[in-house]
Design goal:
The chain is mostly helical. Among the domains are: about 10-90, no CATH class; about 100-235; about 245-375 and about 405-420, Leucine-rich Repeat Variant, CATH 1.25.10; about 690-720, Orthogonal Bundle (Arc Repressor Mutant, subunit A). About 75% of the residues lie in helices and about 0% in strands. It is built from 41 helices and no strands. The longest helix has about 60 residues, at about 395-455. The two termini are about 60 Å apart.
């Protein structure tokens, strides 16, 4: 796989080098240069590393110079298209091309009477260089390129009636649409306040287009341009309202909403206009008074009921409703009058989308004051006589709304209560976890102290009986007080704060929880009483196993948030402190020796003897002793049945088998004389390796059965008899 990738990379580099040479040596052939540029573009689109390599070999700068110096228009168009595609594919190429010189050349292409295709390619390169690049946004303003783009925005399409079936008109529209997109990236992503201030001069022209040509081909680009230019800039928003832009958007929205009942595209287009309106009033809620003149709230509510809209589009409409009603009582009343509150409540209760729920809550919160005013007195609301008459006519409808608003208040109150209880629960959980962690640390320290005392204690049984009885009495008295926390009043208080989310379910299940908690607490009391009796009677098995058993049962029966866990932890703490007293040392002598002897140096021999000599073995060590005895008995049986079993290592047994016969007589090896070749091997090995007989044996093909000792003996014999060695 790696070899194939390497081969493809090498082929790509070879192709780019050849194509670059073709561009250099085919200056007189415009068609060949165009074909080479198109091929380079195709290679760079297919392979992400091709753009980087093409920049490294100088191809990027050559294509840029070719676009400037070529006399053929088709070569310039192909060169600009290739530059834009490479810069769009690789950010390093984008930074390399982002120079004032290139922006000046592109401005010159746009200013001259160039053909539409060349200007489109120039606008495309500007779009790629400026997108997500603050340096490009600065250069497009400083070189005057944005001024040329603004002029093209005004003049490319001169008539408000578009006939896109005409080829020339369609090409002009494509250029104008590209200019709109380029202006959008000049003012936003990232946001550029200077470019926004410059582009706001185009608002009057954009308003004229919206007023005279309500087609999707015009509304979508202009709404995108207006929305991005307005975003997060209060000065530009005020200017847009001052030139009548918000009024025109309201009129367009009204027309599109009325058309949405017949065509689906009008509903989608109305959502686009709604987003632009929201961008205008988001930072200035007082501008909502302009929308109240056109009753935009009622139009948005009607648009919200459209079945073809998805959740994202409905969220945009609800967010616009929230900004409309945030600081405008007229819009709040309009929402109230057009059954907007039941619609918000329905969205809040039925929708599973969190963003929609937040937007609906935002709208309900904005209408809280106006609802209180209307509930006090409808006649006191400052409207004209016509509005008052309308209020009287729709009293029947608004009586139904009072019920919906009551439900809305309950939902809001429930939300606030849930948030408050959740905060209290988090605080309580943190404090509870801190208490548990500190309690676990104290228990571990107590057990360590207990094990340390087990080894060094002697026979102090008589003096310690009195302290044992006193500790037992204090344990009983403290255990009774710890159980006093489980009365009904405290249980109700703790259970109410245990789970704030399921409020209704909590009330219905409260009695069951109380009954289970009381029964579990009674069971613990019974177990503690049994433990005390067993401790007095010195039953060694229950003394050490019973406290741990109580703790495990409590953790299994009750969840972490159960209030009775606190009482059980207090009981456990008292039991551990009681076991740590010196009176308990008398009972520790009856424990298993394998469990007590933690500091003795034990091994496989003395540990087995220790376990066998202990009369108080625990279950675990008892199983170990039984398994060991069973294994030894089976081993003895096998030795008796088969006396040939030898408990010697394998290597020693193998060597003994080789050196002895079945009768016990040693067996000699068969003698093999050294051949002339072996003698030569021996001398050559000594000459190269010295007296390293093992190395010589493994380096030359001696006969099978030769050993290093044989080579050494043979060499010494040969050196003592030189005549024999010579022969």
């Amino acid at each position: 796989m790696e070899s194939e990738d390497t081969k493809k990379t090498q082929e790509m580099k070879t192709d780019l080098n050849l194509l670059l040479e073709c561009l250099k040596y085919q200056m007189d052939n415009a068609f060949s240069q165009k074909e080479a540029l198109v091929t380079i573009h195709s290679i760079c689109q297919q392979n992400s590393n091709a753009s980087v390599y093409f920049r490294e070999i100088g191809g990027l700068m050559f294509v840029k110079n070719l676009a400037k110096s070529s006399e053929h228009s088709m070569v310039k168009e192909a060169a600009l298209y290739t530059l834009g595609a490479i810069a769009e594919k690789n950010v390093y190429c984008q930074q390399t091309l982002c120079t004032s010189e290139l922006f000046e050349d592109l401005t010159w292409f746009l200013s001259n009477d160039s053909n539409i295709n060349l200007r489109r390619m120039s606008v495309y390169v500007i779009l790629v260089l400026v997108s997500n690049n603050r340096t490009g946004q600065t250069l497009v303003r400083e070189t005057g390129c944005i001024t040329v783009l603004s002029r093209l925005f005004r003049t490319v399409i001169s008539k408000h009636e578009l006939d896109l079936s005409d080829k020339n008109v369609f090409q002009s529209y494509q250029l104008w649409s590209s200019v709109c997109s380029t202006l959008c990236v000049c003012v936003n992503n990232p946001q550029n306040d200077e470019n926004q201030m410059f582009c706001c001069s185009l608002f009057p022209h954009a308003n004229e287009w919206l007023k005279n040509c309500m087609t999707p081909e015009i509304i979508r680009p202009i709404c995108s341009f207006i929305g991005l230019t307005l975003a997060n800039n209060t000065y530009v928003q005020k200017y847009f309202v001052s030139v009548g832009g918000l009024d025109i958007l309201s009129q367009v929205l009204m027309q599109l909403e009325s058309d949405s009942h017949e065509t689906l595209s009008s509903a989608k287009l109305a959502v686009v206009v709604t987003k632009t309106v929201d961008a205008c009033i988001a930072d200035n809620p007082t501008f909502g008074i302009v929308l109240s003149k056109y009753h935009i709230v009622s139009k948005l509510l009607a648009l919200l009921l459209h079945e073809s809209l998805d959740s994202g589009e409905k969220f945009s409409i609800m967010l616009t409703l929230g900004h409309c009603t945030e600081d405008c009582e007229e819009n709040q009343y309009d929402l109230f009058k057009n059954n907007g509150l039941p619609l918000m409540i329905q969205a809040l209760t039925e929708s599973q989308n969190e963003e929609l729920n937040k937007a609906a809550t935002f709208v309900l919160h904005n209408c809280k004051k106006i609802t209180e005013k209307l509930s006090l007195s409808l006649g006191e609301y400052p409207f004209d006589e016509n509005e008052t008459q309308q209020l009287k006519d729709i009293n029947v409808k608004e009586n139904n709304l009072e019920e919906h608003w009551r439900k809305a208040k309950e939902i809001l109150h429930r939300i606030e209560q849930l948030e408050r209880e959740r905060n209290e629960e988090e605080i309580q959980r943190e404090s509870y976890q801190d208490t548990i962690s500190s309690m676990n640390i104290s228990i571990q320290n107590t057990w360590k102290h207990l094990h340390a005392d087990q080894i060094g204690q002697g026979s102090k049984a008589e003096d310690e009986d009195k302290s044992h009885s006193r500790q037992l009495q204090s344990y009983k008295s403290y255990g009774v007080m710890s159980k006093a926390c489980t009365n009904d009043d405290q249980m109700k208080t703790l259970l109410k704060s245990a789970n704030p989310v399921h409020a209704c379910y909590r009330e219905s299940e409260q009695n069951k929880t109380l009954y289970k908690a009381k029964s579990s607490c009674n069971q613990n009391l019974h177990e503690e009483t049994t433990f005390e009796k067993n401790f007095v009677s010195q039953s060694s098995d229950h003394v050490f196993k019973h406290p741990v058993h109580i703790a495990k049962n409590i953790k299994q029966q009750l969840p972490v948030t159960d209030p009775f866990t606190l009482c059980s932890d207090i009981i456990n703490k008292e039991v551990v402190s009681f076991l740590a007293t010196p009176s308990c040392s008398k009972m520790l002598t009856y424990r298993c020796s394998g469990c007590i002897a933690v500091e003795k140096s034990l091994n496989s021999r003395n540990f087995s003897k220790l376990l066998h000599s202990c009369p108080y073995q625990c279950d675990r060590h008892k199983v170990i002793v039984e398994a060991e005895d069973r294994y030894k008995s089976e081993l003895r049986k096998s030795l008796i049945c088969n006396k040939k079993i030898l408990l010697t290592p394998r290597r020693r047994q193998r060597l003994s088998n080789e050196s002895t016969t079945p009768g016990g007589i040693k067996k000699r090896r068969i003698r093999k004389n050294f051949t002339e070749e072996e003698v030569n091997y021996l001398f050559n090995g000594v000459k190269k390796m010295g007296n390293h007989w093992n190395s010589i044996l493994w380096s030359f093909p001696f006969q099978q059965g030769r050993k290093a000792v044989d080579l050494a003996h043979k060499y010494h014999k040969l050196t003592k008899r030189p005549t024999c060695a010579a022969s």
